[in-house]
Amino acid sequence: MELTDQEVVEVFVNTKMEEEYNFLQADLVALAQAFIDAARGKIAEKERIECVKVARSVNHLVAEKIMEVRGNAQSL
User: Fold this and answer.
1) DSSP state of 55
2) Is the CB of residue 25 less than 8 Å from the CB of residue 5?
3) Given CA atoms 42, 46, 49, 52 in this order, what sign does their dihedral have?
4) CA-CA distance, 47 to 11, in Å (whole number)?
5) Per-residue b or e along 16-48, where b marks 16 or more CB atoms closer than 10 Å to that residue's CB
6) Which of 19, 63, 68, 75 could be joined to 55 by an S-S link, Cβ 3.0–4.6 Å?
7) Structure pTM?
8) 9-39: per-residue pLDDT in tens?
């Protein structure tokens, strides 16, 4: 998942910060992509855990198959 350059600029402009910063658009995009990349694994793991919980509430065999295919989700 990536943000468009325009989305990155809009988020930056609408974020209240302690100091005023002037970044080049390319630097903002690089910084935003770095944050996305850093968070991607954690977001995917949390989503997987919730998916397995829902599947388990309906059919434990489906939940087990999801865990087998996608990897064991932690804290289940």
Assistant:
1) H
2) yes
3) negative
4) 24
5) eeeeeeeeeeeebbeebeeeeeeeeeeeeeeeb
6) 63
7) 0.58
8) 898 889 998 888 888 999 999 999 999 889 9
